[in-house]
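S.,

Sequence below, as promised.
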Amino acid sequence: MRARQWWARGSLALVAAALLLLLSLAGEGGLWLVLLTAGAAAVVVAAIFWFLLHRGPVRGLAVTLAVATPVTLLVVFAVNGLLWVAVVAAALLAAGGAVARMALRPDRSRWTMEVTETPPPRRPFLVMNPRSGGGKVGRFRLRERAEELGAEVALLDQPGTDVQELARSALARGADLLGVAGGDGTQALVAQVAAEHDVPFLVISAGTRNHFALDLGLDRQDPTGCLDALHDGVEARIDLGDINGRTFVNNASFGAYAEIVESPAYRDDKRRTILDALPDLLARRRGAHLVAEVGESRFDAPQALLVSNNPYGASDLVGSGRRPRLDRGVLGVLAVRVDGTRQAVGLLNGAHREGLQLAEAPEVVVTADVADVPVGVDGETVRMTTPVRCAIRPGVLRVRLPRDRPGVKPPRARLDWAALWGLATGRSPGPAGAVDRPAPVGARRAARSPRPDA
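The prediction came back faster than expected:
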């Protein structure tokens, strides 16, 4: 507690030093420097939004404005001999923000899963996709290494292979562990079978993005380390998401992302497809009218809706791209609705999170004004009949983890200056013991006593 107090005081001192530097030079232009910088930042963010919202000449003008504004600002500072002031003040503010996050960082118990000691499997069965991740299976010799450790390996070298049938057949032959070296979509399919039969599941980070492996604390750069769990590992129980009877390990996305990825042109030219589709999606000239029922809350007409297996961190617009825990027994919900430039600027600047809604719940129901909608499930777009029901399945998956692994990084603390002031003055302990998250909406959390990850 004492250390956090001093970190908080140091952060406030750095911010105060930046402000004093600017105010001390107010007569020489320090005050207008602050106002000009704030105005330029707003113009740049607005220009980016106009670029996404429009096509043709307006889009070209927005690009010009976004580039010319910061360049002009730097020229003005240099001409008036105030460039050094801006650099020093920015450095002080950045240092103050970094120290503030250290003071408000969450306790370790908030981002580590409970693990238990279990004996190694005797007949592990692994499914490997040789094409996944640009050929990681072959590059890291995963099949050979797994077989040396006594695993049976099935390669997905034929299109249309039913991986769930492969897994069920292996269990019928006596397999006591199922694992996947492949993308998150394949991971989810086999994880569903493992959960149904209550056998351990092994994640091998051989996919392209490996979001699931990241949130389990596995090494995404060297998937061979995941195989260590076959002889020296621990076990954790985690949750799975369910969407209309289909399992997902990461998230299900509705709205803009799902509409774009569904386009046949997306795989050939992602950038052009996104830029062509966004104006109509943001202006609601394309796509279904979505309504999400989250507990007693109702999210009406969001342009983008993300339902995740446990909440993502809420320190920035897209969380941090990571989930601190996978065993809290709730879905995370993030809905984005932007109705104008002012709202977009506020959202991207983090001002009051206007346009961004966050919630947690054990169930989410998404309805639409059409019979079916595209949904991105763990990165793969499928069409689903409405209403679409998402639910959490707490603790149903036994995950086998290598004892020696990088671990889950702590979630970023939100810069809550009121909490920081209370911590610095001793009036409140601050939010240091909690991960930044919205209040649960009808959530039921399992009672646990987490211990640090082994």
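The first helix runs from residue 2 to 24.

Coffee later?
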